[in-house]
Amino acid sequence: MSTNTRLSIGVSLLGVLALAACGTTGRDTAAGKAPAGPVKGGTLTFAVNTEPSTCLDPHQSPADVAGLFTRPALDSLVSLDGEGRIHPWLATKWTVSPDQKTYTFTLRDGVKFSDGTAFDAEAVKANLDHIVDPATKSQLAAGYIEPYKGSEVVDPHTVKVHFSRPYSPFLSALATAYFGIESPRSLKQPQDALCKKVVGSGPFVIDEYVVQKGITYHRNPGYAWAPEGAAHTGEAYLDKLEIKVITEDSVRLGALTSGQVDGIASVPPVNVKQVQGDPRLTVTTRQAPGGNYNYYPNTTSGPFADKRVRQAFRDGIDFATIVKNLYFGAFQPAAGPISPSTDGYDKTLEGKTKYDPAAAARLLDEAGWSGKDAEGYRTKDGRRLTIRWGFLKAFAREQRDTLAEQIQAEAKKIGFEIQFVSGTVNEWLEKYPKGDYDLIDFSWQRADGDTLRNLFDTSAIPTAAKFGQNAARLSDKDVDGWLSDALDTTDQAKRAELYAKVQQRVTDEAAVFPVYVFNYLLGTGKKAHGIGWEPQAYPTFYGAWVEQA
Amino acid sequence: MTAVAVPATRARARVVRPVLVRLGTSVLVLWGAVTVAFAGLHLTPGNVVDLLIGSSTVTPEVRARIIADYGLDRPLPAQYAAYLGRVLHGDLGQSYQLHQSVASAIGEQVGSSVQLMLSSFVLAVVVSVTVAVLTAGRRWARAVFSGIELVGISIPSFWAGILLLTVFSFGLGIFPATGGDGPESLVLPSVAMAIPVVATLSQVLREGLELTLEEPFVLTARSRGMSDLGVRLRHALRHALLPTVTLAGWMVSFLFGGAVIIESVFSRQGIGRLTLAAVGNKDLPVVMGVVLIASLLYVVINILLDLLYLAIDPRLRGA
Known about the structure:
Number of helices of chain A: 16
CATH class of the largest domain in chain B: Mainly Alpha
CATH architecture of the largest domain in chain B: Orthogonal Bundle
Pfam families (chain A): SBP_bac_5
Oligomer: heterodimer
Strand order of the largest sheet of chain A: 8-9-10-1-11-22-12
Distance between the termini of chain A: 33 Å
Protein name (chain A): ABC transporter substrate-binding protein
Number of domains of chain B: 2
Number of strands of chain A: 26
Subcellular location (chain A): Cell membrane
CATH architecture of the largest domain in chain A: 3-Layer(aba) Sandwich
Helix content of chain A: 25-40%
Radius of gyration of chain B: 25 Å
GO cellular component, one term (chain A): ATP-binding cassette (ABC) transporter complex
Largest sheet of chain B: none
Number of domains of chain A: 2
CATH class of the largest domain in chain A: Alpha Beta
Structural class of chain B: mainly alpha
Strand content of chain B: under 5%
CATH topology of the largest domain in chain B: MetI-like fold
Low-confidence stretches of chain A: 1-34
Organism (chain A): Microbispora triticiradicis
Distance between the termini of chain B: 26 Å
Number of helices of chain B: 12
Largest sheet of chain A: 7 strands, mixed
Mean pLDDT of chain B: 78
Shape of chain B: flat
Structural class of chain A: alpha+beta
CATH topology of the largest domain in chain A: D-Maltodextrin-Binding Protein, domain 2
């Protein structure tokens, strides 16, 4: 969801891995009721709000829009449905060794990349090796298979993947576009060439990607290896697919309402009702898995080092009402650190914390912030209760800046002064690894419960040497232990139990202030049908078709 | 020195010296532009390596490799000297983030921007000359158009662009909202970009025309039986053009800056958006490349303008 990879840094983002437990069914279509069956032919034009301007190659890029742009051209070894089940795709079957450190894949026969190269075990090895090669400078994919040791080609249709430790999120990672299988011949090019053109075996072939303009595809003739469970098999319906980049919200919406494009990403929340009221248009929402849009207090320094102050902030501000009023119901208030569509979501968190300004006031008194200055802010030993919020206004999307200002006003009522430290990304990048902030906000999309490890594991605390997402800088031995145990087991029930413990603990510790659950808001015109969804909540076009005039 | 040689040498010096001075200052301007851009970006807080890595977790090996690849371990003066040297060889460097050479990144985008700038420039000149010639010295027309011009200068191009889109693209469906294919996609952005330029140019031009129309030689021309329009076009316009040409230098920078906004609103490719993204991402080589191209353009335009003055005003030729 990042506007680009830079933005991803703090503000929003990326994400990936899969295992979604979505509220809706897996391969449902986005474009409403079709008047008749799918027809072959035609061009579908889609408009997105961001682009992977720096690099198209999902092995390198962390931007989820790189996944969106390359998914039509790339197949994966396995696929993931909306219920979090893994299905065969380019791999027909697989086994996991008893110690869970080795995965053996049997590969599909007869698959060809669009450049004519045959798909085989060597190709799988070349792809995984490419992802972890330091020369690739992978910003996301490599991080998701950190314990990868190597691949071993047993025969042309069998490949073994070795890990240094049990690593349960592997298959769901493999199902994402970030592990899309590219042609080994194409991978031999310099990295920079891959950033402009990616060659795979998918239902579409990339014609050209022009930065600031968009990307065009044509149908891959002879495509016959759709994932198990897809709505149809064989070639894609569309002759051509075109994705345009229209960054301006009102222009993107106008292009949809005037029929210049068939579908758009990110309908502005404020316009959702208007689009829904238009009989020619449809809005489909899809809850994104992973970390919600949350605020993370710095638990190691400043006022928020005191748990009571964190609790007071969380419970003394009516986040839910503010979110409901600001987004007109397009986004739901969040109950915990991760979204309900994430595998391992703990439903019992809902209703656990309540808006209670009186209790917040008591907690602040207990914590010693009992004084009040002339402006109504609480004080302790003559110091004002000031929260420095590293807020990147330039990258704020979905009116997050307005939201922040409303929170600021509400916080004042319970005696907090919020100062926005809104410098440039560069300044922020200096401060973030040092922990020079009291509060940070971002969303973190990833369909696996392992997303909690990104957000709260001690090893994910950002330092000068290693960027991480544990902005709360929480270091809790129990949490680390549960997260590590979850990697060791592929038993979904057991993993869910462990992840529930983590969610309970970070909620008890008030190490996160949940704000809202991000929904992908897809707008489509009447002519477009069959747009599907990736588990990480972005649209796919294999089953898409357009009504012919 | 002999008495004979002196006048010839002096005459040549009179031509050669100003040209040399002009070229010398041009080079200084270009050098200054590169230096300022380099210094400015390095003074901005933030570490280039971190920017390359972005938001993700990477191993120390990956980090070391990026530093080595980009030569970021060398001291600042060495990075600067190396850059100057490469620029002299016509090499603008490699973009850290776009994964391509700066020359090709700029080359990819420049065509679309030049199209836009040229078309809005031509549009602005045609419209403002027409308006100024027709309204100068005519009370009612003048009042109405200065009102319109004031509005034109005051509205932000961003808003004008959205307004044009809403009416002519979303509403009437005459022009496409986005893209850079075909002349029809050029119409709305050119108009949006030309509005403030037209508003300024026609005011300056009208002012000049009105002053000139009061000159005695205009009366002479009229007394010879010349038509009013003929007087305005053949005599007054030429006089009034001089301050306008001076403004053209300003217009180039205005169009360059305007491209940033207009290209974003109309989702067009172009240098403006490239620059915006590069500055935001601290993509040093691209920023410096654009600065260099922009200052080069400036220098060339100003030299051309100096020549144009000579063509327009014969009085300057002897000077």
